[in-house]
Amino acid sequence: MSGRPRRSSETPPPLGLSRSELGTEAAVLARHATAVDLCVFEGRHEERVPLRRSAHGVWWDVVPDLAPGTRYGFRVDGPWVPHQGHRHNPSKLLLDPYGHAVEGWVRWNPAVYGHVVGADGQARPDVRDERDSAPFVPRSVVVDHAFDWRGDVAPSVPWSDTVVYEAHVRGLTMRHPDVPPHLQGTYAALGHPAVVEHLVSLGVTTLELLPVHAYASEPDLVRRGLYNYWGYNTLGFFAPHPGYAAADDPQGVVDELKGAIRTLHAAGIEVVLDVVYNHTAEQASGSGPTLSWRGFDNRTYYRLDDHGRDVDVTGTGNTVDLRDPLVTGMVLDSLRHWVQEYHVDGFRFDLAPALVRGADDAYERDHPFHVALRTDPVLSRVKLIAEPWDVGVHGWRTGQFPPPVVEWNDRFRDAVRSFWLADAGGALRDAPGHGVRELASRLAGSADLFGHEDRAPLASVNFVAAHDGFTLADLTAYEQKHNLANGEDNRDGHGDNRSWNHGVEGTTGDPAVLADRDRSVRNLLATLLLSPGVPMLAAGDEAGRTQDGNNNAYNQDNSTSWLSWRHGPARLALLRATRELLALRRELELLRPSSAPTPDPVAGRTRLRWFDDQGVEMSPAAWEDPWRRTVVALHDTLHEPERRAVALVLHAGAGALDVVVPKVEGVAGWTLRWSSEQEAQVGAASAPGDPLAAGARSFTVLLGTPTR
Prior knowledge:
Helix content is 21%, strand content 22%. It contains 15 helices and 31 strands. An 8-stranded parallel β-barrel has the order 14-15-18-19-20-21-22-23. A 6-stranded antiparallel sheet has the order 24-25-26-31-28-29. It is elongated and about 85 Å long.
C-alpha cells in the first residue's frame, strides 16, 4: 500500500489501497458509476463495504484495515447502455486496476461476461447478465512490499555498452539441467547461479523479460486446450503473474520476483520488462468478459466510437484510451510501481503508437504520455524502448519517437535478412529495404531514421530475430511457417520466409547444407553484434535454438518454445562464436559509437567509409548496382592515443571471392580477427592492397595495424 497522506477528507486519495491519517482507504476510477462496493473475502464469505464518497470520477472511502493476505475485489453499479459504451454490472466481481497481487485464474464460464452468453456460446451483447461471476474470477490480494534489498544498486549500463537479451521466464529456465526441477520455469530460476552465469559469460548486459504482468489466456485458446504462453493479454498492470512463481501464495510471488531482480543486479545484469498497456484481457466490449476496467468504466478506460464500439488499433479487440488523463496516470503509476517496488531498470512498450494516439486517432509525438516519460523524475532515468508500430492507420512509426525513448529497428532486421538470406543464385531485389545501400544505412547507425535530436545511433535497437517470428536458426532452414500446432490451420503468424531459398527445408543430415546454415547464422549474428546501435538477441539464438519452423509460438508452452541447454558440437561452436563476437564488441569501442559515424575525419567521432571488392571506395554507380553482393565497411577513429581501424568484409555471394583489402592512410597492415568461416586462420596478416580470400557467404573482421 502507498504511504502517502492526503490533505483533506474532501480530496480523493491515490487510486488503489492507501493509508493516510484517516486510516486505510480504497479509491477507484468509476466516472459514470452510481454505486461502488469494496468486496472483502474470507474463503467464500463476501463482505461488501460501500464507498460513500465520489468526486472528479473517483469513488473512495475509509475501509476496514486490510492486512497483507486479504483477498478482495469490487462491484460497480451504473448505467447499462451499450450503444453509449456503458456496461456496468454489479453482478460481476472486478479486480482492482491498482491491485498489487492476483490470486486465482479466470474460469471461462458464461457468468464472467457482463452480457448474456448462452451455454452454446451464443452472445446477446446488449443484454445484461445477472449471474454472479465471483466463483469464476480471480481476487486481488493485499501484499506487503517491505523487502530486504541488501544495498541493491542498479547496474545503470550506458546505452553504448548495452546488449539486450530478450527472454521468457519459463522458456529460458524450464529445461535448464542445473536448475532444480521445482524451480524450473520460475522467477526464482532467473536468479539461479547457472542461469546468471550463462548471461554473464555470454556478455549480455540487459535481460528483457516478456510480460510478467498478471495475464489470462483467451477463451478461444482454452476451448482448444491451449494457453497463452507469451503473456500479451494483461489482467493486472501492478501485479506479477502468479503462474511464473515457485511460491504458491501471493506474497511469495512478489518476494520471489524481487529476489531474482536483486540477484541479477548483483551480477551486473539489468532487468527490463516488456509491458502491454495498449490493451487488456477483456477483449472487445460486445464479446469479451468483464473482469476489471470494463466494469468500472468501459467508456473511460477504452477507446470507443460514437456507437460504443471499440476502436481497435491493437488487433486484440480493445485499445486502452490514454487520451484520458486518469488512464494515462494509471499507466504512469504502474511504471513507477515497478521501478520503485521491484527495482526494474526499464520497459519495452508493446505496440507503442497505440499509447499515444490523440483525439483524431493520429499518432502524437507530443502526447502527454510522451511528455510524462521525458519529464518524470523516476521514469526519465530508466531505459525506455518502443515497439514503434501498431495495427491502426499509419501505425508504422519507426524513428519518430522522441527521446529518451529508443526503438526497435525493423528496417535493420529486414535489411540484414535480405542481404544474407536472399536467393543464393540470384540478384538482390531492387526494392526498398533490400540491397547494399539499405544495408549500409543500417550498419551506419540508421541516421536516416534516428539522426534528428542527436538520437542516432543509440536510439536504434537492432535485431534480426525476436520472440515474434522465426528464430535465427529457423530463418536459415525454413521457407514457410509451420504453425499447425497453434490450432489455426497455419493461417496465423507472418507470411512465408521468402527471403531464404537455400536447399532442403527443415532438418537435414547433409553436412554441407548444415555447415552453410551454421555459417549463415554466424553472419547474421556478426552483423547484429558488430553494428552501431543497441543489439538485441532473442534467447537461445546464441546456440541455434529452433522452433521447428513455428514463427508464432504464442500458445506453445512446451518444448517448441523452451530453450534446450543440451548442445551438440555445432551448437557449442555457435555459442562460442556469439561470446567471441560480444567480446569483440566490448573490445572495439569504435563499433559502438554514441554519435553517428561520419565519412570524414572528425576529432572524437568514428569515421566510416565503404569500399567495393576491388578495394576502391564505393561510387554512386556501385551503390545503385542491384547485383552487388560484397561490401567492406571501414571504421577508424582519431581520438584514441593509438589509432584504431576495423574493416568488416561482408560477402553474400554464392561463391568464394578474392576481396582486395583497402589501402588507407594510417594503416600499415591488417590482421584477421574473426570470421564466420570456421576454417579461416585467425591471426593471419594481409598487406593493404592484397587479395583476401572470402568464402561464399562470409563475414570477416580485420583489425588494422597503425603505421609508426
